Amino acid sequence: MAGIQAIETKENIFNILHEHREQIRALGVYRLGLFGSFARDEQDASSDVDILVEFAPGQKKFDNFIQLAFLLEELFQRRVELVTPESLSPYIRPYILREIEYVTFSPHGLESNGWYARSLDPCLLWGRLRDRLGCRNDQGAGAASRD
């Protein structure tokens, strides 16, 4: 599409998903997870957008998957790598789950504060908390709470 610029940041992606939430929900999407270079803020002009899609029960259909892929590429003006949880290799799954940021589409709008809910892997959250509290990597889970 002429005149439309490619998205450049993670925040652009989340804003676009918010603006088009009804279209996305109509395709049976329960939640989308952003991972890869955009999730890590390491994208460049040639980066694609890596998205993990989870469909609502009974909505995981080939047509919904393809329509979502085309919609996201049109909205982002970038190549989109769309995957499902079942298609993830067990070898790369842990790396993806460490960095993924979710946008959840509930029947009543976007979950959480009415905008979008971004959730991170619990291990990543624990690591960030441990770093803030000044715990060493070799201390156990209860070490920070004892002080």
UniProtKB/TrEMBL annotation:
Molecular-function annotations in GO: ATP binding; metal ion binding; nucleotidyltransferase activity
**According to the lineage, what is the superkingdom?**
Bacteria
A Pfam family that the UniProt record links to this protein: NTP_transf_2
Q: Would I find Iron-sulfur among this entry's keywords? A: no
Q: Which cofactor does it need?
A: Mg(2+)
Database matches in InterPro entries: NT_sf, Polymerase_NTP_transf_dom, Type-VII_TA_antitoxin
The keyword Nucleotidyltransferase is annotated on this UniProt entry: yes
Indicate the segments forming the Polymerase nucleotidyl transferase domain, all copies. Answer: 19-102
The positions making up the signal sequence are none
Q: Which UniProt keywords apply?
A: ATP-binding, Magnesium, Metal-binding, Nucleotide-binding, Nucleotidyltransferase, Toxin-antitoxin system, Transferase
Could you say which protein family the record assigns here? Belongs to the MntA antitoxin family.
The name of this protein is Hypothetical conserved protein
